[in-house]
Write a structure and sequence with these properties.
The chain is an alpha/beta fold. The chain is built from 15 helices and 23 strands.
Length: 465
């Protein structure tokens, strides 16, 4: 089964050379997706461009109602969608259901956009002249989604783009294309006019064509740091607005007053959930001072953890195996014991001891590997967080309010957690990211999304008569 495109309201074969799609659970083929090309992108952008005037002129409250209806349809079809996600990218049904719950929350949050789209009006800014500032949609928005949250993560962007009156072209991950296809079947039922939402399957050629297309106003992407840098550079060079979220290595700092059992449960759940394939997973535990009781608890939880879901591909497993090979004698729990060559992309949880200057801490490891680092003071922990090449998220576990306040104000990352293992902001507020974790000037979600997906127009008027 080939994952289809949605262009101008019509589901059609994705087109181009077929890319195999394999099951992470078994490693066996489950279908394919067309690689796509610039001609297909041009058709999708043309459909979005044609639908733009009507959608932009639709009252913002009516646009919001369509988003709410889509949230309801996702809820009504949750079990089928969850099964598709699980088959597609390997996450458990429970995690897939959680993804859909978060997707609905983001749609409902984007439906509040009418309140944020209000302009400004100043009477007699100078004698006899009134000044008005209004927000208008920017045009056709391109959204490039990742494999790990095939429905939710792209939706974080396109829901706000649509709420602001733009039309969209969504490019699902070629590694997990079927979630996007399943959602595409619900757009017309929710009430989106033909061409307002388009889905183009494919690989790199599709992304490059979206970056280059003169009628695409913006590009939003979540991917690796290397991909984010390439897409940001290409889209920016073409004069587009761009926001590109890259990789991460998120530290969790444990102060000595934190409960070892609570921290161990939080950091292992964060590091090993979804086999570590989350951009907000905590992958480095930083203890302030030697904390042998905490280390022992983490090691025990890791040893007791079984049944992790598969990773997305054999290449992803191989990358984890390579890191563990380089770790050598510093491995405390070895996930390679769970490898099943030829029977799915499985690897177990790993725990590795490291020093603050270890080269193993400077690259993203999108897998279930937790590194343990010890520093003498909270100041040293904050310095470690800020010295990292990534700046996506960091958490602190402590009962000391002053320590938490110091950490939240001084940690140079976009998302902070206090006694929270996964520092995911709620749907109503902006999602940060710094350094190699984000390229762009305006982030996603909430008011920042409205800033990204609208342009301002200033009108100065004098009425004579």
């Amino acid at each position: 089964m080939s994952a289809p495109n949605l262009i101008g309201g019509v589901l059609e074969p994705s087109g181009g050379e077929e890319i195999p799609v394999t099951s992470p659970w078994t490693g066996e083929p489950i279908g394919s997706v067309g690689a796509g090309d610039a001609a297909i992108v041009d058709r999708a952008v043309a459909a979005a461009r044609a639908a733009l005037p009507g959608w932009a002129a639709t009252p913002s409250t009516r646009r919001a109602r369509v988003l709410v209806r889509l949230a309801g349809l996702i809820e009504a079809n949750a079990e089928d969608l969850a099964a598709t996600i699980s088959r597609d990218n390997g996450k458990t049904l429970a995690d897939a259901r959680g993804e859909l719950d978060r997707a609905r929350e983001h749609l409902e949050a984007a439906a509040t956009a009418p309140a944020l789209l209000a302009g400004e009006h100043v009477v007699d800014v100078v004698s006899g002249i009134d000044a008005t500032l209004v927000r208008e949609p920017i045009g056709v928005a391109a959204i490039v989604a990742p494999f790990n949250f095939p429905i939710m993560t792209g939706l974080i962007y396109w829901s706000w783009a649509l709420a602001c009156g733009n039309t969209v072209v969504i490019k699902p991950s070629e590694q997990a294309p079927y979630g996007g296809s399943a959602l595409a079947e619900l757009f017309a039922e929710a009430g989106f006019p033909d061409g307002v939402v388009n889905v183009v399957q494919g690989g790199r050629a599709v992304v490059e064509a979206l970056c280059d297309h003169p009628d695409v106003a913006s590009v939003s992407l979540v991917g690796s740091s290397a991909t984010a840098a390439a897409v940001y550079a290409r889209a920016s060079a073409a004069g587009k607005r761009a926001q590109a979220a890259g990789g991460a290595r998120n530290p969790l700092v444990a102060v000595g007053d934190a409960d070892p059992a609570v921290v161990a449960a939080a950091v292992t759940t964060s590091a090993f959930g979804m086999s570590g394939q989350r951009c907000l997973s905590s992958s480095i535990l930083v203890t302030v001072g030697e904390q042998p009781e905490l280390v022992d608890a983490v090691v025990q939880v890791a040893r007791d953890t079984t049944g992790l879901p598969p990773m997305i591909s054999r290449a992803a497993v191989d990358a984890v195996v390579d890191v563990l090979a380089r770790a050598g004698d510093d491995i405390l729990v070895d996930g390679r014991d769970a490898l099943t060559p030829g029977e799915g992309y499985l690897v177990g949880p790993s725990v590795v001891r490291a020093t603050v200057d270890s080269p193993l801490l400077t690259d993203e490891i999108f897998g279930p590997v937790l590194f343990l680092v010890s520093v003498p003071t909270l100041d040293a922990a904050i310095a470690f967080v800020n010295a990292g090449p990534f700046g996506n998220a960091a958490s602190i576990y402590t009962a000391d309010g002053a320590a938490a306040r110091s950490f939240t104000s001084r940690a140079d990352v976009g998302n902070i957690g206090v006694n929270v293992g996964v520092a995911a902001p709620t749907a109503q507020v902006g999602f940060g990211g710094r350094r190699r974790s984000f390229l762009g000037t305006i982030h996603s979600q909430g008011r920042t999304a409205v800033d990204f997906f609208t342009d301002i127009k200033s009108v100065s008027a004098r009425w004579v008569g």
